[in-house]
Structure formats: structure tokens, C-alpha cells
């Protein structure tokens, strides 16, 4: 009897273990399916839930769900949005969702680089919904992807690359000139440190000036909280310390002197640029951790006041240094330069590639395409644009003389919050902005949440860094043409290595070793079809205006 | 009835087999079912075609890997790092198990054991973040301690430095896994007949002699089996650890196949290429296991099969 009981208990235990294993393996797909489709119908007014992947690393929501803005969107469209965010590489995320078929209903993410390549591949391989037949019902979306509203190269490459079919919706392309956003990329130094070392940041013009400036900061032996201050640093994964490249060459493709183009990686200026940064690293002028650090660590260094010169765009610098500046008045970051630009006359306006930055697609997993289009069309409307940027009228802002004016209560709340959570909790900056069609922030009333201090800092930096104004690039980008060359598939893996190889080279033990690292990749590029690919580029761009000068934006 | 003696035996010990069933199901689902995905290495993977519908590419991606200018560097780095880990990381748990076995205070022994297991359960992300904090030359406690004690004149850049890279990689791997890997040896030592120790004592053997003549032979078989299995990992140097600890400064000696597979597959979307490199790794691992297994059988009569 006892034996039987123990046998039964053992059998039960084994069955439970096996059951547990299998349950552990499952992913509870039932709920996901419900979340994905909601079982409703956007057209009939029933509630529909759509899952949106906002593929921008670092984006995220606050503590409130649903937010007042999300509730208002739901009231207007009948669509409840379930946002998903990316933590880590956006390129990896694109490849991962399509390879594993773990698809959201709507994907929205960067309109460039490997992210866009992934979306184009997905479109070619029937992973996305063709919306061309439905665009007449959604005028706001149609407008955002009309040929005249998309940069030509991007239209050829992505938006209009599939004949009559349309898969991608395009966002944040400036609607008018006054909506063009200049992010004011550059080197910014802490004002108090520049004063301490006795150098006027505006006197720093050449690469030698820059080197001497950083050296002087290093020699001053400054410390914050007992730790040394780095002369030059950046944000996570090295963003954007490499922007000093514009002191060495004008753009990624340079004229060889005979009218034909060459990728800058094969040129002498690229070597000089690399060796200059190697010198900064080897002499302790550039934070060596900057290329491997995570965003929290980068932010921590800035918040502790441990970076003297920061390379990035100004909004990021203002946000990251807010706390430190508040506690240490006079430590604001101010522009260095303007620095010399290789190949550009001193009185030339700054050449910026100002264009949209986001594409949105509906994946084949979306079973309620009409609801998705209804939602996106609403977001791209003026009403949707204002709701997402300004909030609910009467709650977050009022219209005064036809212009939106922030409610003081919310303005103060957002201005005093250094974490950004207060804004997110109302529904701002949690991803909806990237689905609002053309950028018309200034046309519709400007940024009502920007405080005077921030506006003043941006204006001041603009005056210093753009003394001759800006010029929006409209010429052809040879990189887009190269991506269409027959050699591209074999060449792309080598071209993708350029950034990694540059970083490896600047950490090399000697200049010779650095050049050897570069030389090895050049050989590999030649082996994988670069000569034919650049010939294809030159043949196709003969007689056309090509980007030869470009500043980061 | 059941004529087959194997089936008869299974039926007789059905309860034991029932206990094995979850493990068999696990292996079937996660180690055998995915094998059909191997074909991706021989196809031009397309999202729409999936594993079976993508066009055939033959050995294209294997050629691509061997034509890649860093393929030999990747293989060399992988073998070197995993070889060092095997050499040092394999012996350490045996040593720890023997040392723990010699501890007489049960409370102390249990505490020590628990402490040694703990790092195994901490993810590499946390371990590497801790290391970054501890080892940074900019206010890190390790450098501060060495500087204040006079052992150093200038702080050392431990991370992102080729001079210290292998020490850091192997040291952190040993620290993280030593406790967990010693469990099996502790079990083997616990299974040694106590009469052998008593007999050794009567013969005049001290503690070291007992370890040499009783404990070590007691764990020898399990050590050989684990060594054979560990050789299968020689082509795999540890994805998470190297992804997190390797940087541009150490890329020349720290880039390994595992990270290359992930960055090509997920980072660049070259899934077929990544599968081909992964398959190459597995193939070499299989050859290594078979070779070492054969050698072990010849040398020690202990083998996996």
C-alpha cells in the first residue's frame, strides 16, 4: 500500500515537473493576441487596442497609464494604444521583430541607417501592409508622403521605391522653412571651466586651438567630488564625440580632385582625423570610457560636473546638465568656436541635412488596418499634432489670440521637474510625437513648454555657431546611390565596420598601428566590391549636384 | 507481450523514466526541434520565406565568413580566451571543492558555499557594471586603495586595456562560476567511502596525502567527463561577458565568434551568415568533443560514450 502511494506521489511529481516545464516554455500568447487586435473594429466605433513599437532607444513612458493625452486620442479615434519601447539598439530591434515574427500592429522608428534598411527589407518581403489603396480616405497621411514633401533621395530609396505600392508613412519633415529644426550640434564647454583656464571659447577655431584648449583643461587638474574632470566627453556609446570630423573633411564622399568621388575612408583627411583623436585619447584629453559607457553612466558624469567639453546637440546637453547647472550657477555649457570646416569658405552658411527622421509602418500582423490608419491619420492632423504637443485644450493649454498658451500650473510643473517624468505622465514625449506627420511645431504655435532660459540658450548658441545662417542640403547623397549598386550586398558588411574600425584605430598603441587597422578594412572593402561600387556611384551621379559639405544634424 | 529486453527494462523502471521525461521533453523542444533551423545557414533567409521557403544559397555564407578579413582573428581570440578559461576555470572548482571539504566547522562551510554560489546568479550586466565601478581609474575603490597604500604611483586603466584584458576576463569568469561548478565535485567528494579516509589515516596519511590518494582519485572520473564536455565550449568564449567587457581598445584581442554571430545576425540582419558562423562553431565543437572523448578513453578509460 505504502509502495503504491509513494509510486503515485512520484508519478504526480514527475507530471507536475513536466507540466511546469511546458507552461514555463509558453508565452501566454492568448493575452498578446487580444492586446494586438482587440477584437474590435476601428471603423464601427468599437474599442480597438493596437500595439505600437516606438523604436527609439531610450524612449519610454512615465508612471501614469493611460495618460490624459492617450485618453483623448482614444476618445477621438476609438483606438486604445499599447506602447512598447526599445531598450538598446534600434537596428537590432527591427531585425529581431521580423526574424522572430513578434510583430507589433504599428512600427515607428528612425528613417535612416540600418533601421530603415530593415524596414525596406520587410516591405520587399511582404511583411508590411500596402496602404496605397486607402490613402484617399486618409488625407493627412497622403500629404505626409506626397513626393514633394519627402526628400528626393529618401523618396527614391524608401517611400516611393515600390512602384504603385506604399508601405511607409514619413514623419517630422519640416512643413515650412520656419519649422526646420537645427539641433545645434557642436562642442560645448562649461563656462566656469573656460573662465578658470582663461580661454575664450569663441577664440577656439582650428584643430590646434581645440587641442590646446583641451590640454589646458587637462593641465589645470580640475576635480569634481574628488574625481578628475575629463577635458572632452560625450554621451553613451561615444555619441557624439566624433563630430570633430568636419574640421578634416566636408562629407562622407569627397572629390578626388578630378571630379570623381571617393569614400572619405580611403583618403588622407580621414587618416588625419583618426590620428588626431588617437592623440586626444593617448594624452588623456578624451574620456576613454565614452565609447563603452551606458547612458546612465554618461548622464551621471555630466550631472557630477565631470565633463568639461561635451560633444552633442544642445538640447541633450541642456537636459543632461540641468541639475548640475541649477546647483552650480554659472556652469552652463556654452558653444566652442565656431570651428573651422574643411573645404568651406568662412562666410558659408552651415550646411544641414534637415529632414524628417521617422517612418511608421503597419505590419502584416495588424488585423485592423483601418483602425491603425484612422489613428495615424488623426495624429497627423493639426488637431492630433496639437493634442500630442500641447495636450488637451482647456486642461494643459488655452488658445489666446489664435495661439496656444501653456497653463501656468503645468508650465511650472514641467519646468521644475528635472526627470522629465511630469511631462510623460501627462502623455508628452512618450512616442506619439513621432507619428504626427510633417513637423509644423513653429507654424502651429511653437514649443509652449520651452522655458525662457532654454530658448535663450538655443538662441545664443545659434548666434555663435551659425553666424552666416544655415543652408538646407538638397543635393544627392552618394551613400544612397551606393546602396543601390549591385555590389552593395557584399560590400555593406565591410562599410558597416567603418565606425567600429575608427574607434579601434583611435585606441591603437601607435599611429602606425592605427593606420594598419584602417588599411586592413580598406583592403577588405576593395575585396568586397568597393571599386565597382564607387564607379557605379560616379557613373550615376555624373552631372548631378552632390553633397560635399554637411554638418551633423 | 514485450519481447524487446530494452522496452522490458524501461517498463520495469518506468518511474525513473517518468522522472527523466521532463528533461527529455526539454531537450527535444529546445535542442532537437531547433535543429531544423540549421538550413538557414545554407539559404538566403527571407522574412517571407522563413526557414524552409527561402532560396537555396549553398555554402555562400561559409565562404563569406572565411573571406572576412577578421575571421582568423576571431577564431584565434575565441580559442585563446576559452582555452584560458578552460585551463584555469576548470581546475579552480575542484580546488574549491577540496578546500571546502577540509573545512571542519559546518556553519562556516555552509556560509562559504552559499557565498561562492551567489555570483553565479548575478547577471553579467550587473557583474560588469560592478567591475566598471570598482576598477575605474577615475575614483574607483580598487585604484584608490592601491594608490593610498603606495602600491601604485598612477592609477591603472584595468578595463579597455589590452594589458589587463585576459586577466579581467578569466578572473571574472572564475569568480562568477567557481562556486556553482564546484557543486558537482562536492557531490562526488561526498560520495567517497569514508572507510577509505580511515584506512589512509591508519596507514599514516596526513591531510594532504588523503587529498592526493583518496579525494582526487574520487573526483577523477567526474572531472574527466566534465573536461570532455567543457572542450565542446572551446569555440564559445562567452557571449554576454565579452559583449559587455570588450571595447574598441581591446577589439583586436577581445573580438570573439559568439559576439560576431550576434552582431551580424541581430545587429546587421545577416541571419543566414550568422547561422553559418554558428554552425561552423558547433561543428568544430563536435569534432573537439569526439577527439577528446577518444583520447580520454585511451588515457583514462573514462569517456562519455
Walk me through this protein's architecture.
- The complex is a heterodimer of chains A (553) and B (305).
- With 553 residues, chain A is α/β, with parallel strands linked by helices.
- Helices cover 44% and strands 13% of the residues of chain A.
- Chain A contains 23 helices and 17 strands.
- Chain A has helices at residues 2-25, 29-37, 68-77, 90-100, 113-124, 139-144, 152-159, 191-196, 207-219, 268-282, 295-303, 314-327, 369-380, 382-390, 408-416, 421-426, 441-444, 452-465, 478-482, 488-495, 498-506, 511-527, 530-540; strands spanning 48-54, 79-85, 106-110, 168-171, 185-190, 223-224, 227-228, 230-233, 253-255, 261-263, 307-313, 333-335, 350-352, 358-362, 397-400, 403-406, 470-472.
- Chain A has a 5-stranded mixed β-sheet.
- In chain A, α10 packs across α22 and α13 (369-380) packs across α14.
- The radius of gyration of chain A is 26 Å and the shape is globular.
- With 305 residues, chain B is mainly α.
- Chain B has a single domain (66-300), classed as MetI-like (MetI-like fold, Orthogonal Bundle), CATH 1.10.3720.10.
- Chain B contains 15 helices and no strands.
- In chain B, α5 (71-102) packs antiparallel against α11 (207-231).
- The longest helix of chain B is centred in the N-terminal third of the chain and has 32 residues, at 71-102.
- Chain B is flat, with a radius of gyration of 24 Å.
- Chain B starts with a helix and ends in a 5-residue tail after the last helix.
- The model of chain B has no long low-confidence stretch (mean pLDDT 93).
- At the A-B interface, α1, α4, α5, β7 and α20 of A face α2 and α14 of B.
